[in-house]
Design goal:
By secondary structure, this protein is of the alpha+beta class. It is built from 4 helices and 3 strands, in the order ααααβββ.
Length: 144
């Protein structure tokens, strides 16, 4: 009976034909293209997250350095002199830093410190900024 089936089907032997092979190669090519695109997208997102983490660490360091200054040195002029570190500036690619030091109107014994850091993404557009705010209070006895 087995011999009869092979004669009826035209004597073909089981296996992959040319059409099946072409379809298989095409499906593999589509799968590989999609995989490469996903890996590229993941790499871009990872780089974006690394930049945001670096910007946050830099803003945190700047805010801490400002808060450690003596009370009388916390002025808008001092804020204008604050710069990001060279390593962070290279990593973020020309970041824009905005630092403000403002006395509180309702309480003269405190000052508001704000640090905002922006940087461009790969296409040159600005990423969402990192903003940190801190309050510094004058210590009793005229010190910080």
């Amino acid at each position: 009976m087995l011999a009869n089936r092979s004669r009826v089907s035209g004597g073909r032997r089981p296996g992959l034909g040319l059409v099946e092979m072409v379809v298989t190669v095409a499906l593999l090519a589509v799968a590989m293209t999609a995989t490469v695109q996903v890996v590229g997208w993941v790499a871009l997102e990872r780089r974006s997250v690394e930049r945001r983490e670096r910007a946050l660490a830099e803003a945190r360091n700047l805010l801490e350095r400002l808060a450690a200054r003596p009370w009388d040195d916390l002025t808008p002029e001092a804020a204008a002199r604050v710069r990001p570190s060279d390593a962070s500036a290279r990593f973020l690619g020309k970041p824009t830093l905005t630092v403000t030091i403002a006395p509180a109107d309702d309480a003269p014994a405190r000052k508001k410190l704000s640090v905002e850091l922006r940087w461009p993404d790969r296409s040159g557009r600005q990423e969402a900024p990192v903003r940190l705010v801190g309050w510094v209070y004058r210590r009793e006895g005229g010190g910080r």
